[in-house]
Amino acid sequence: MNIVVCAKQVVDVSEMKVDSSTKKPILQGIPQKISDIDKNAIEEAIKIKEKHDGKITVVTVGPNDAKERIKELLAMGADEGVLIPYSEKYDYHVVSSLLAGAIKKIGEYDIVLCGEASIDLFSGQIGPRLAGLLNIPQITYAQSVNAEGVKVVAERNMGDKMVTTESSYPVLITVTKEINEPRLPSLMQILGAANKPINEWSANSLVQDKLEPVIEIVELKGVPMERKNIVYQDDLDESIEKLVDSLAKEGVLGG
Amino acid sequence: MVLVFSDDDKLCLEILSKGNELAKELSKKLTAVIIGKSDDALARKYIAHGADTVVVAETDLDSFKAEEYTGILENILKETKPEIILIGSNKNGKELAPRLASKLGAGCVTDCTNLYVKNKKLTAERIVYSGNAVAIEQFTSRPNIVTIPRKVFEPLPKNEKHSGNIVKKKVEVKKTASKVLKVQEMQTGDVNVEDAEIIVSCGRGFKNKDDIKLINELAEVLKGRTVGCSRPIAADLKWLSEDHWIGLSGHKVKPRLYIAVGISGQIQHIAGMRDSGIIVAINKDPEALIFKSADYGIVGDLYQVVPKLTNAVKEKMG
């Protein structure tokens, strides 16, 4: 079974700070990591490989230092990495076109796995866009995946419904965070990953025309959370009395 | 033309309202699309809520598949050539819109929370970085695809006098290699956190599943009767079903009163409840992040605080 996993390097959102004067998020100097749900995708790929054998290729579009992040995924159990260095303006249209180009170059694949969305922007576009560009079926929001010889069956969390979908190969699957618990590589695996190849494929070797973004982020504005922040922490009975009085004054008790 | 589609009727009415506003501003017509069995009553309802035309793509598909729906919409778009396509942002819509966008080489913004025309360009806002920022995005080429979640826009009042035409169209659906085997309604009971006026929520501060009754009681005396929770309670421990889950990946709520009990206040949770009227936090850790997002807070052990608070509210309300 040949599996391609798409992974994105993102800022660690939990480390993000907000500039207190401009209220804008500070993105510089924040540690980078592989988006959490993409690690679930890798984990699922490894599980499928354990059952069926085959090869796992990880593909990333990003800056050169993303190589370090790819190594983590190789340590987990991926066999080969592909980095498409890209420093020009990009959007989902550009990135999915590059990934589709890389997957076509890889050639033989049975499953493309993605996280349902990246934890930074959480758009959830790459999976369905890729499936569209590759013209293959898509199984989104998978909470469980059972890959068999000629077909795969997945249970999908579609909000108010649980949908079970089956597909032949090739197929694109996006997974949710609940599907598994990504493994932590052992020291031996981390050392072993140094010998696994990470290829660099340039954008213009993958797509013929120059890619132009069709959307641009014109501004990133902070979200001021203006709350009263009144905290009662002395005598409990007194605190509760004050709280209930305040709530009554706010008019949120009853009716 | 502005074109609107959602397989969720209620959501479709909300999007029609925004579609109507954009269409007027741009002097365009507004078209709604129904995919499935012919439904004149629904088509007329869409017209009464602002659609100038309703295209009914008649199929005998019994379940949604993004590949097939993309094909159907592509067909309709070839004839109607809309500049703007608004799609309901339920999970179906969120997997449909980007696939459609890839076929058209179009831009797409998902989960948009505000939408307007600025400098002649369609401009969409969406929440990013776990609720820490809003990205303002502009389309630089056409068509423009936007998905809109529930409760972002209000439907227009029903206007029976608004006239429009219904166009029925038989569509051939290209078969795809995937197959829906089973559709199971999630156990919903009667929980609907998104419509709740008062919500009491629980988090990791609770030691046992049974202890959730403490907040049930508080919710009951508050006449809110709605219980929410943070991710660990629904997704990891499964003490409550996902209908209760409030957060970035769960439900987004805006009750008049939100009480967070034993919830640390991870940004992912805040993203789901930040629009609440009054926010109250109860947590034993005075440094807990949740207090930064709260109007009122009590530092204390929830096992002591909640029963006392329940009694105090009961007395106050008589």
Instruction: Give the overall pLDDT of chain B as a whole number.
Output: 93
SSE-based structural type of chain A:
alpha/beta
The major sheet of chain A is characterized as: 9 strands, mixed
Please indicate the count of domains of chain B: 2
What is the N-to-C succession of helices and strands of chain A? EEEEEHEHEHEHEEEEHEHEEH
Main sheet makeup of chain B: 7 strands, parallel
Question: How far is it from the N-terminal to the C-terminal residue of chain B, by CA?
Answer: 56 Å
In the CATH scheme, the class of the largest domain in chain B would be Alpha Beta
Poorly predicted spans of chain B: none
Q: Give the CATH superfamily of the largest domain in chain B.
A: HUPs
Percentage beta strand of chain A = 25-35%
CATH class of chain A: Alpha Beta
Could you give the topology of this structure?
The complex is a heterodimer of chains A (255) and B (318).
Chain A: E1 2-6, E2 9-11, E3 17-18, E4 25-26, E5 32-34, H1 36-52, E6 55-62, H2 66-76, E7 80-85, H3 92-106, E8 111-115, H4 126-134, E9 138-147, E10 151-157, E11 161-168, E12 171-175, H5 187-193, E13 198-200, H6 203-206, E14 215-222, E15 230-232, H7 236-250
Parallel strand pairs in A: 1-6, 1-8, 6-7, 7-13, 8-12, 9-12
Antiparallel strand pairs in A: 2-5, 3-4, 9-10, 10-11
Chain B: E1 2-5, H1 9-25, E2 30-36, H2 40-48, E3 53-58, H3 66-80, E4 84-88, H4 91-104, E5 107-109, E6 112-118, E7 121-128, E8 133-139, E9 144-148, E10 165-170, E11 178-185, E12 198-202, H5 213-221, E13 226-229, H6 231-236, E14 257-261, H7 267-273, E15 278-283, E16 296-299, H8 302-317
Parallel strand pairs in B: 1-2, 1-4, 2-3, 3-10, 4-9, 5-9, 12-13, 12-14, 14-15, 15-16
Antiparallel strand pairs in B: 6-7, 7-8
Helix pairs in contact in B: 3-4, 5-8
